[in-house]
Amino acid sequence: MNVLLSTTLFPGSLYYRMSEPARAVNDVGLGVEVTVQRGVKTTMARSSADPDAPAAVQTVDAQGADVVVLQLPKTREMLDALRLLQGRGVAVVVEMDDLLSAVPPGHRGHDVLVRKGVARVAAACAREADFVTVSTPALLEEYAPHGRGMVVPNAIPRRIAELTPAHDRAPEVVTVGWAGSVSTHPYDLEEMQSGLQQALDRTGGVSRFAILGEAGDARRRLRLAEDPIELPWVHDVDGYLATLGQRFDIGLAPLRIDRFNTAKSWLKVLEYAARGIYAVRAPSAEYERLGLGHRAKRPRDWSAAIVKGVEDPDRRRDVAAADRELVLASHLTEHTAELWVTAWRQARENRSRADRIGA
């Protein structure tokens, strides 16, 4: 079976939901040949009956694939391409890893995704797909109520989990870190309220707070006494993951519990665990399901967990090492390779069945 993965331009989603799954499937050798490329090749033309109408998709090149996977399709043209592929007997999988209809106000994508209806187009693509793959149960409920879908959880490549872990260090000053951009996570940091500053006050001289990414107005949101250290974002995902383990000793994963975040995967805590970083995280459904990291809800929980991680290096090392071992045992891309293949094969069966019924 030949599978063509048509990717998004977002590095994280491309890495975890496309390029690394493809690498794992090809490495394991499950009788599937996977090709990854940006988008699918189409031809566009205007209607001769209405030359003022916008150009529409006329043909789609499946490049000999039995299954085409469309990652985060969000345009009418992608919906048209999906239908054209199915009309030629090619199975189409829609891959979704965010609840687009629930992107909160304040997020820079809210206007386009929610107010301008892009999320509705994505949902329409999922409804018409032969199969849907998602990263969480909440997303499965949203995008595959028709029953043609499955959860393939996010996983880490072995080469990343086997890098020198953060817990091997014995720093004189412990770096407490958060990775992300305040502009795309405007409310998450506020979940800690004064908890982080309380912890920094209690561990003055032996701790510091850093943000890998865009700090923005984090000082105000976190009620910090001083600006956080701002580390530049690393766009290459392998480089980003390597940097996490080189710069963070304690990783923070706060989340506001809303529809958007409830549907999000366990990825941030999984990344921290894979790199041997002691994680303190929100009680979101997916973080709870993963079971890694130290759970924190109230400001005093955040403070206490961070302080323990700073003041007790043996405990910090032991907890981080145990979490990393669980990643190596159960959460690598080689562990999810068969799930991806199962989804693609089911899409092929669904399309063959639909074609027989329609014949």
List the helices and strands and how they pair.
Elements: E1 2-7, H1 11-28, E2 33-38, E3 41-45, E4 56-61, E5 67-71, H2 76-87, E6 91-96, H3 110-115, H4 118-128, E7 131-134, H5 137-143, E8 149-151, H6 158-161, E9 174-181, H7 195-202, E10 207-214, H8 218-222, E11 229-231, H9 237-247, E12 250-253, H10 259-262, H11 267-274, E13 278-281, H12 285-290, E14 294-295, H13 299-311, H14 313-330, H15 333-358
Parallel strand pairs: 1-2, 1-5, 5-6, 6-7, 7-8, 9-10, 9-12, 10-11, 12-13, 13-14
Antiparallel strand pairs: 3-4
Helix pairs in contact: 1-15, 2-4, 7-13
Pfam family, one: Glyco_trans_1_2
Domain Spore protein YkvP/CgeB glycosyl transferase-like: 198-340
InterPro entries: YkvP/CgeB_Glyco_trans-like
Structure at a glance:
The protein is of the alpha/beta class. It contains 15 helices and 14 strands. The chain has two domains: 2-155 and 333-358, 3-Layer(aba) Sandwich (Rossmann fold), CATH 3.40.50; 158-330, Glycogen Phosphorylase B (Rossmann fold, 3-Layer(aba) Sandwich), CATH 3.40.50.2000.
* General shape: elongated
Low-confidence stretches: none
Strand content bin = 15-25%
Instruction: Tell me the name of the CATH class of the largest domain.
Output: Alpha Beta
Number of helices: 15
Give the mean pLDDT: 93
Helix-and-strand structural type: alpha/beta
Instruction: Write the H/E string, N to C.
Output: EHEEEEHEHHEHEHEHEHEHEHHEHEHHH
> Termini, distance in Å?
23 Å
Instruction: Say how many strands there are.
Output: 14
CATH topology label of the largest domain:
Rossmann fold
CATH architecture of the largest domain: 3-Layer(aba) Sandwich
| Share of helical residues | 40-55%
Main sheet: strands, sense, barrel: 6 strands, parallel
* Number of domain units: 2
With strands numbered from the N-terminus, the spatial order across the biggest sheet is 2-1-5-6-7-8
Q: Considering the protein shown, what is the CATH homologous superfamily of the largest domain?
A: Glycogen Phosphorylase B
What integer value in Å does the Rg equal?
Answer: 22 Å
Pfam family, one: Glyco_trans_1_2
Domain Spore protein YkvP/CgeB glycosyl transferase-like: 198-340
Protein name: Spore protein YkvP/CgeB glycosyl transferase-like domain-containing protein
InterPro entries: YkvP/CgeB_Glyco_trans-like
